[in-house]
Design goal:
mainly alpha; flat
Amino acid sequence: MPEHVSILQLVGVATLAVAAVIWVAVLVRVLRRDGEAHRARFMELARRRGGRLRGLPHQRRKGPHVEHVELTPAEQDAFAFLARQFTDDRLA
């Protein structure tokens, strides 16, 4: 036993370690217990409610409006030049 560590510190660390092991064991047991029964019950509830979850808002549209801007040939050339510069900097 190290000289600079008190008995209370050693007991505290041991108690925390035992509590952590017990917590993990209980957590694993709870997560494994009746997994199929819980899944079957959830599927039954989902089927009865029409497959929707009430906590999620109704989706009104598919996605955001897509904007598209045509570039002039000069703008396309400037963009291509800029892209080449970034590529050359990355390779150097």
